[in-house]
C-alpha cells in the first residue's frame, strides 16, 4: 500500500456542460407517454389533422419548419417516416397532399433534449483516424453520457486533441444531434446458450431451436425455428417459457448505422430496445487489438429498462456503424464490466464487479459471455468502504496493468484511485494507492448527484495520463497526470 506526497493532478480549465439545445427527434404517440394505461389518442389527433382546410395545413407546416429548421438535419424526412407509422389508420384509398402528410408526421414527432439534465461519465480512446495530426499530437474520441427528461441516458461523442506537452483540448460539438438507423444484426448462439443455462438450465426446447441454427444466425432464421417449436410444443411442456426467454435475448441485439455526412460529435446512440428503454449508461470504450492485429473499439454499457439492469457490448471499427449485443453470465450480471485492451494468454479478460462491491478479474473465450470471476481487490480504506469499481479499461504499461478505480465512502462520496496489476496474472495487485488520486475540488462538489467524480476510461499519450471525469454527474472536466510519477508511486 503506497502513501506518500500527493500526486500532481492537473485540471484543464475547460468544462464540458450539458447543452439543452442539443435535441433529437422521436416518434410521439399521445396517450402513450408511459403514465397512462389506456388506448392512445392517435385516432383523435389524426381526425383533427384531416379536418383542417389546406390553408391551415400550409400555414401550420410552414410555422413548424421555420421554428425547427436550425435544430435538426433532415426534418422533412423525419416527418415522412413518422407519418408512415400512423398511415395504417387512414381509410383505404385515402389521398393526402404532401403538406398534410408532413403535418401529420409533425403531429406525431417531439423533440428530446439529450443533455436536458446533465452531461457526465466520459471515456476516451485514440481516434481511429490520425491523418493530418501534427507531430507529437494525437486525436481522440470521447464518449459522454447525456441525461435527459426522465433521467433517460444516451451515449454521445466529442472529439479533441492532446499535444506533445500533454495539453488537452476538446472540440466544440456540431450544432445538430442525430440518431442512426437501427437494423437487425447476426445473433450468436453462445450468448443464447449461456444466458438460457443461467436463467433456467437450458433444456430440450432451447436445444431444439439452437442446434439447427449454427454458431451465428439471423433473426429471421431464429423466428422460423421458433415457429416450428410452437407447432410441436404439446410434447415440450416448458416451450412457451423458453420461447419468451429466447425472444427477450434476441430483442437485445441490434445494429445501428449513421449517415456518412454526419460528424462524429453529431451521432447519438439512443435507447433502441425495451431492455435499455430507460437509459444507456456509463459506456466504457476500449481500443482492443486482437492477436491477429485487428482493431475493434468495444464498449460495455449498462442497459436500464426502468426496473432492471443488464450489460450490453458495443462494437465498432469507425464510430459510424455499431452493433450492440447482450453481455451474459454471472460475471456480467452487475454494472461496470470493462474489457482489457488485448487478450491475456489467448483469452479475453475483463474487470468485473460481480459481487457489487469488489474488483474482480474475469476470463472468457467470447467477449460477450462471462461465466465467473476471480477476486482481485477488496475495499480496505475509509474512502472506499461502501464499494469499489473500475473507472474504465486497464491500461497496459511496462510495469503492469494500470487500473483507475472508484471508491465510494461515507456520505456516498465518490473518489478515484489507482492500482497496478501483474501483466501476466492481473488477479495479483502489485501496487495500490492508499489515498485517492482524485477527489472533488470545492467547485466540483455540487451537481445533479453531489460529491461525485467519476470516469469511464482514460488513455496514455507519451508520458501523460489523460483522465476525463464527470463532476457531480452534471458536467465533465479533463485532468492529466505524469505517468512516470504515478507508476513510481505505485511501485514504491
Structure description:
- The chain is α+β, with helices and mostly antiparallel strands and 492 residues long.
- The chain is built from 9 helices and 31 strands.
- The chain has helices at residues 42-51, 54-68, 75-86, 98-107, 189-200, 204-210, 219-231, 239-251, 483-491; strands spanning 9-11, 16-17, 23-27, 109-113, 118-126, 138-147, 153-162, 168-170, 178-179, 181-183, 187-188, 216-217, 254-257, 267-268, 279-289, 295-304, 309-316, 321-327, 338-339, 348-352, 359-364, 373-377, 387-390, 395-397, 400-409, 413-421, 429-432, 453-454, 459-461, 464-471, 475-482.
- The strands form 8 sheets. Strands 1, 2, 28, 29, 30 and 31 form a 6-stranded antiparallel β-sheet that branches.
- Strand 25 and strand 26 (413-421) form a beta hairpin.
- Helix 1 (42-51) runs antiparallel to helix 4 (98-107) and helix 5 crosses helix 8 (239-251).
- The radius of gyration is 25 Å and the shape is globular.
Short description:
The chain is of the alpha+beta class and 492 residues long.
Task: Using brief descriptors, characterize the structure shown.
single chain, 492 residues, 9 helices, six-stranded antiparallel β-sheet, alpha+beta, 21% helix
Calculate the terminal CA-CA distance, rounded to whole Å: 9 Å
Please describe the biggest sheet, giving its number of strands, its sense, and whether it closes into a barrel: 6 strands, antiparallel
Q: Roughly what percent helix?
A: 10-25%
Give me the count of strands: 31
How large a portion of the residues is in β-strands, by DSSP E? 25-35%
Task: Tell me the number of helical segments per DSSP (H or I, 4 or more residues long).
Answer: 9
Low-confidence stretches: none
**Basic shape:** globular
Q: Overall pLDDT, averaged?
A: 94
User: Compute the gyration radius: what is it?
Assistant: 25 Å
Helix/strand class: alpha+beta
